[in-house]
Amino acid sequence: MLTDDERSSRLAQLNELIELIRPAVQADGGDLVLLSADVETGVVEVQLQGACSSCAISSTTLQAGVDRILKDRLDWVTEVLGGVDEEMDFETSSAMGRGGYTPGW
Questions:
Q1: What is the average per-residue pLDDT within 83-89?
Q2: Other residues' Cβ atoms within 10 Å of the Cβ of residue 41
Q3: Domain count, the chain
Q4: Is residue 101 in some structural domain?
Q5: Domain range holding 82?
Q6: Rounded to an integer, what distance in angstroms lies between the CA atom of residue 90 and that of residue 65?
């Protein structure tokens, strides 16, 4: 069982790390949002938004990028759940940034 100080410390570390990652995602017209974090079990849920919803490599960004960085730098993170915001339509999304793939129409 974690103390309140340990809980808030873990959450602060997580938020700080998310803020370090976000500019790289934002550079391609997307964004990274922390949806939830269970600092007791180590399960973190994030979402890619914006241009990421039309990017062909967004799942790779989540797995090889966000997942790896969070687990490498925060030893208490056990699982990173993530997805892409599917609410944005494809044309709006692709117009926001280049990502790993932009259709040529």
A1: 69
A2: 11
A3: 1
A4: no
A5: 4-91
A6: 23
Please tell me what DSSP assigns to residue 1. -
Residue 3 identity: T
Q: How far apart are alpha carbons 20 and 31 in whole angstroms?
A: 12
Question: What is the per-residue pLDDT across 7-33, written as a single tens digit (0 to 9) for each?
Answer: 999 999 999 999 999 998 888 888 889
Sign of CA dihedral 60, 51, 11, 40: negative
Looking at residue 76, which CATH number applies to its domain? 3.30.300.130
Note whether 51 and 31 are within 8 A (CB): no
Considering only CA atoms, give the Rg of the chain.
15
Q: Is the dihedral of CA 73, 28, 33, 62 positive or negative?
A: negative
> DSSP assignment, residue 75?
T
The string of pLDDT tens digits covering residues 42-81 is 999 998 888 777 677 777 777 778 899 999 999 999 999 9
Q: Residue 82 has what pLDDT? A: 84
At 27 the pLDDT is 85
